[in-house]
Fold this protein.
Amino acid sequence: MARDSEPLFSSKNLKLLTDPLNNENPITVQVLGICSALAITVKLKPAIVMTLSVMVVLAVSNVVISALRKSIPPRIRIIVQLVVIATMVILVDQFLKAFAYDVSKQLSVFVGLIITNCIIMGRLEAFAMANKPWPSFLDGIGNASGYGIILIIVAFFRELLGSGTLLGYPVLEKTGLYNIGYENNGLMILPPMALITIGIIIWVQRAKNRSLIEE
Amino acid sequence: MANLFDIFIKSVFIDNMVFAYFLGMCSFLAVSKTVKTSVGLGVAVIFVLTITVPVDYLLENYLLKAGALSWLGPQFADLNLDFLSFIIFIAVIASMVQLVEMIIEKYSPTLYTSLGIFLPLIAVNCAILGGSLFMQERDYQTVWEATSFGLGSGVGWFLAIVGMAAIREKIRYSNVPKPLKGLGITFIVTGLMGIAFMSFMGIKL
C-alpha cells in the first residue's frame, strides 16, 4: 500500500464500502448468501451475531487471499480459498462457543455454514483475487454490512411482529397494544415468512431504484 | 429397516432442506429458471449428498468425535478433534465432487455435458455441507441411517428445485408488478411453497 499515493479513504475506496449497502447489495441484488440470511432471522440477537461473524470472516479472508493472490496457482484456488475460509470459521465458532454459548447454540449449524456462504466465495473470486489487500478489506466490510442490513431489517420485523419483543425486550407489552386486542402474529416466526419478507424488501428497493428492475 | 424408511421420509418432506432450513438457496434461486437444468442439478445433489454424508459419518465416528480414536490404542482414547470437523467435512466434499466429476466424465460423457458447470458448483452448495453438519448434530446411530438421511435430503432438494422451476416457467406469462419481477416474486413463491410443505409437519414418525 505504501507505494501508491492514493489516500486510505479515497472516493474510490469509500464507494467499495457504500455500494454494497444499496445498489450492489449482496442479498437483494447479487443474490448471494441467502441461506443463512433466512434461517437465523427469527430474533434480532442471532442476526446481529451472525452479521458480525460474517464480517470478521469475510474481511480477514479477503485480506489473506488478496495478499496471497499472486502465489496461488489458479487450478487449485478454490481449495486454497476454502481452507482459508474454513480456518477463519473455526476460529469464529470456537470464539462464540467460549464467549456466547447460548447464541452459538441458537445459530447451530449456521456458523459452520458460513464456509459455504456464497457471499464469501463470491467476493474472494470476484474481488480479492484481483485487488490489493486494503481495498479488499473495505470490500469485505462493505459487503458484510450490506448483508447485515438486510438480516437486521428482516429480523427486526420478524421479532417485533412475531414475538412482540426486540432483542428480548417486550416492546409491545409496554405500549399496551395487547389490552385493546392485539395479538402476536405466529406466522412471522415460521421459516417461510423470512422469504416473503425479503421478497417485499426487494420489491420496495426496486420500486425506488428502477435501474435494478429485471426484464 | 422401518427406521431407515422413517428417516428417509422425514428428511424428504418434514425436514426438507430448502423449505425448512433454507439450505442450498443460492443455487436453488440461480438454477431454477428451467425444468431441464434444475433436474440436472437436482440429480447431482442427490448423488453427492448420498456419498458425502456416510463418508463424513465414518470420519466423524472414527476420527473426530471425543474418544473416537480409541481404536488406535488406549492412549488416544481421550482425544477430541471435534473442532476440526468443518475443515475435514469441506475437504471431503470438495474432493468427492472432484471425484464424482471425473467418474461421470469417464463413463457418461452425455450426463457430464448436461451437468456442465453445476458439478463444481456443488462443492459450495450449502445443502451439502449442511447435510453433514445436521448428521453430526443429530447423532445418527449407524452408517445406514446416515446414508438414508443423505439420500432423503437429496431427494427433498430435488423435488423442491424441480417444483420451483416448473412454477417459474409458468410465471413468466403472468402479469407480475414490475419491481417484483424476477427475484422478488421468486422469493415470495418459495415462501408460499414453504408454507405448503409445512403441512407435512403434522406427520408423526
Notes: Chain B touches chain A through 48 residues (CB under 8 Å). Chain B has a mean pLDDT of 83. The radius of gyration of chain B is 19 Å.
